[in-house]
Amino acid sequence: MKTAILAGGKGTRLAEETSVRPKPMVEIGGRPILWHIMMIYSHYGFNDFAVALGYKGDYIKRYFAEYGSLHGNLTVRMGSDIPVEPHQRNHAPWAVDLIETGDETLTGGRVKRLKPYMGDGTFMLTWGDGVSDVDIPKLIDFHKSHGKLATITAVRPPARYGHMKFDGDKVTAFEEKPQTAEGWINGAFFVLEPEVFDYIEGDDVMFEHAPLENLARDGQLMAYRHEGFWSAMDTLRDKHVLQKLWDTGDRPWARWEQ
Fold first, then answer.
1. Which domain, by its residues, includes 140?
2. What is the CATH number of the domain that holds 95?
3. Count of the separate structural domains present in the chain
4. Which residues contact 71 (CB under 8 A, 6 or more apart)?
5. Minimal CA–CA distance to 235: which of 153, 185, 168, 177?
6. Residue 174 scores a pLDDT above 80
7. I need a surface site. Which of 50, 71, 136, 168 has the fewest CB within 10 A?
């Protein structure tokens, strides 16, 4: 099953980072968040990706061209027919289609432009800026169980402010940006049938608007409720929170390390 990742946005709320690179290439723990997202899927054996490029797409192309050939130890033999010889390859066995979808194309248009690369069966879709510890096989099983065209992962958003617990006036616990206990939002991590492409009219369509609204109207959109960790990297503060989690070793989305 193939996974589509939208990686073409400009990330204007991360301007300090995205003035020189696209948002999905902003790093957490020395790796682009796009790498983290792909590792989430790869952990469960899903290694076939189509990445929708837009703003500074060449940056992402260069990263994967170099990642595949230069990752790990090398031997360089000057004048040889094979001047660069990689040693044991220790990176994931990814196949990655890097598809230009236009700098100004909206999310629905980017999804539509990936249609020729997604095959004729069920596929997955997510955004290039969000990580989660969602169990991908359970998500797929849920999708197959209901027989509808689309499954969306519903998540509890992180609280906007820190959360305190008290014993009288004594603070017994302080959590920075915990998950809220109420409300559900779109956490991406979709599982979709090819007929979903018919709900997208063109480049100027936000996938989150008419396509999802019309799928819901037609009774074709189901929600997989994920109670675990989820976070989107929308702002510099979000990046710092994720980096802090990484640095402390509390990395709930990094199941490949567990």
1. 3-257
2. 3.90.550.10
3. 1
4. 86, 89, 90, 91
5. 177
6. no
7. 168
